[in-house]
Fold this protein.
Amino acid sequence: MATLARLQARSTTLAHQYYYRNSVVDVFRKKENDAAVKIQSWFRGCQVRAHIRYLHRVATIIQKRWRGYLGRQHYQLIVKLAYYTMKMNLYNAMAVRIQRRWRGYKIRKYCFNYFYLKEYLKAVSETNDAVREALEEFAEMTEREEKKADLEREEKKRDYQARKMHYLLSTKQIPGIYNSPFRKDPDPWELRLQQAKPLTPRRPNVKAKHSVSLSSWLACTSTRSFPRSGTLPPVDRKRCQGPFRDVSEVWEQRYKPLEPTLRVAEPMDGLNEARAQLQRQEWTRNVNDNMFLPFSSYHKNKKYIPTMHLSSKYGPDAYGSQHFRDENPQKWICDKDFQTVLPSFDLFSKYGKLYSKAGQIV
Amino acid sequence: MSQRQVLQVFEQYQKARTQFVQMVAELATRPQNIETLQNAGVMSLLRPLLLDVVPTIQQTAALALGRLANYNDDLAEAVVKGNILPQLVYSLAEQNRFYKKAAAFVLRAVGKHSPQLAQAIVDCGALDTLVICLEDFDPGVKEAAAWALGYIARHNAELSQAVVDAGAIPLLVLCIQEPEIALKRIAASALSDIAKHSPELAQTVVDAGAIAHLAQMILNPDAKLKRQVLSALSQIAKHSVDLAEMVVEAEIFPAVLTCLKDKDEYVKKNASTLIREIAKHTPELSQLIVNTGGVAAMIDCIGSCKGNIKLPGIMMLGYVAAHSENLAMAVIISKGVPQLSVCLLEEPEDHIKAAAAWALGQIGRHTPEHARAVAVTNTLPVLLSLYMSTESSEDLQMKSKKAIKNILQKCTYLPALEPFLYDAPPNILKYVVGQFSKVLPHDSKARRLFVTSGGLKKIQEIKAEPGSLLQEYINGINNCYPEEIVRYYSPGYSDILLQRVDSYQPLTN
């Protein structure tokens, strides 16, 4: 109890002390608290910073590793690419080198081959020369042929001349004009004349057998048959004594062209004859005597349509065969009729061309 | 009245008719009689005689009509207007060969004048009967029919087409194969007239197999036939590459060249035309001609004839040279350039000169080597004088200018260029200076020569607009030389020197 008593005794002090102490503590409490907070904050700050630093360090390591890894990967890629480009460049360069060589070779060999071109041009010029020569030869040949033909023509002409002038040939007694005794050698013409055959004198042209066209009938009255210029009598010739006619009159009478009567000049059946002749000609030209006939007999049934111009309702040209010449077969003495021939008037056709008895022209 | 007297009247009438027709036919041969005949109304008198009973009179009447129609187109028109053609066409099919010949002659005489008259003949249906006449046995009838068809086809493509549609071509091709030269000649001429209008017509002629027969006749000795044959071939070949190749495939080649040596001028001309028509299509065909020596033969041919006959040859050289540089080189080594420059100098006519200038331009435009070959023959001054001359035609001036331009742009042969510095007009000077500016930087000898010959001085005297092409070239040349030399040759340099003398203050002590 003592203790209790002691304690009770002391309780006030204790209370005081307690209060005091508490108040002291209260006085310092804020400060201490602040200090503690400061210490703690500092410490904690240090701690956290250290931790963060640690974390940073670790993160850096991670990042380093990762970035290193990525970088290495990227580097690999770049290297690969670079290697690839380098390789490709090299390849390209090599390909260019090959292509260069090949193209050069090809062009030189096939397109612009200098030697080939030179050779080609040489060949062309050689062909040119050959062609020129050949053409020259050809031209010469044609010229030669022409000349030869000319010569032959000339020769023929001279032969004809020689035949015409054959009378100039020298005889045994008399030298001809080409064989002058004052010259050493006879003229070449002399020799030619010796070889030539004299031309036979020309016969007067017999009038060609009657021709179809009527123009030949007209021709016999033309001026051709009367020699006008050549045979005129000389002007100074004296007139012959006696009861003679004028010379020109006599000449005219003598060279008077043949003037047949119309009937003689142009036979009645001229047209028929011409037709017959045409038929004969056509027959001679035919390869085959029998006319070529079509295979079917269709054409036989076809009606003949005469040409528009030759047909009329008055019938084809019947004149002369039916109507104008009457036929009486009973009177015939052979199997066909005599041709009717109509004589012309002699007097008319000879009018003014004959002498009368008194010696005057009628 | 006895029978005889009656008959005599008829005889007399017949004789009078015959005589009349014959006299008219004879008179119609002389041009001075034609007008009198026309005024006397000969047409209306001849027309009934075409229907005469006597064949001789019919024929002679047709002959007289043909001669009249042949004379001028008025009379030909009178024949058409007189409705004579249907009669002729009708009887053309029916009558004998003499009449056919005469009728075809009338048709030819009418058809030759103008397309309208030819069309009138076609409208009468004459083509079918003419084609039937081509099948006639008598060569004279065939000839007359072919002649008439050719004259009708000659005018234009439609008429030709009408002739083709009538089926004339196979028969004409048969006519070529006949032995008669005259018939061959006229058939070839008709084919030529048909083929000349269009590629299709030419193709029809080719399809009938005409080329082989035509090609065979190139070596025929008859000159007139050769003319027609060559003309027909060239009319076929001119249209397209295919047709030209067909013609070439008929192996005409060495044979045609002999025609270039022919005596007849027109054979030469037609042969040259044929070769030209073939050469103009492709380089390959030109090459073929070069390989067979055609160029040399052509050059010889040009040398041996004159006037218009040269023209196709000159053009052929131009065409060949235009195709490629090798072909141009072939022309050069065949000695074509001297021949062309001779043509340029000696031909009196402008169009031939123009062709020669064009050909030279085509030869010289490929490479410097070609240009040099042209330049050394001294052609450039001639071309320049032709260009500058006031007497030359516009075409010639243009062609020579173009040729000069083509050649100068490739020419590096300076001795030939130098005269141009002195007498060329500015539009040509440009090219000359340009060539100098290209050559001089690379050739020291030429640089030296250029100064000593006075070229540099001349260059300094040229007044060019600043900034123009000419100025650029001049600067290029000036850059090849040291500055002093350029200044020394500049005009007015002596004055500047004298001024410096004036202004110089001598150092006086």
DSSP finds nine helices and no strands in chain A.
